[in-house]
Amino acid sequence: MSSKASKKKISLVDNTILFSLISIVLGLLVGAIALLIAGKDPIQAYSAMIEGVFGKPKYIAWVIIRSTPLILTGLSIAFAFKTGLFNIGAEGQFIIGALVATMVGSAITCNNTCTTYSFNSLFRWSYMGWICRMVKI
Questions:
Q1: Which tens digit of pLDDT belongs to each residue from 101-130?
Q2: How is residue 108 annotated by DSSP?
Q3: What are residue 84's phi and psi, to 5 degrees?
Q4: What are the residues whose beta carbons fall under 8 Å from the beta carbon of 87, sequence distance 6 or more?
Q5: Could you give the maximum distance between any two Cα atoms of the chain, in Å?
Q6: Other C-beta atoms within 10 Å of 100: how many?
Q7: Number of H helices and number of E strands within the chain?
Q8: pTM of the entire predicted model
Q9: Could you give the CA distance from residue 137 to residue 133 in angstroms, rounded to a whole number?
């Protein structure tokens, strides 16, 4: 067996952890440059950002609550791309789905079966997102 066949070409793209860390560092550097151009101190801005996220336990909860819909929207797009579908309307689906879920949730008075209504609202949210997707096709 030749030595060329046994050697694998190592690429930065193949190492996802290293690639992710380099992307984060480059993003922070670009942000620091933009802050410097705007006349602000990047260290002070980044420390305020860290303090705003991890300052108190309730701040962490707020970050999780506000970022969960965006994370789930990104996950839906990633899943669609992995299955071979092309979908560029995730933002509109998210907005219409949230609107319908709000309408359904505000129309229901909560009693002992509140969990059932929550699942019903989630189903309607997903269904309206799907309908908006199908209308675009």
A1: 777 767 666 665 555 656 666 677 677 767
A2: S
A3: 95, 5
A4: 76, 77, 80, 133
A5: 73
A6: 19
A7: 6, 0
A8: 0.50
A9: 7
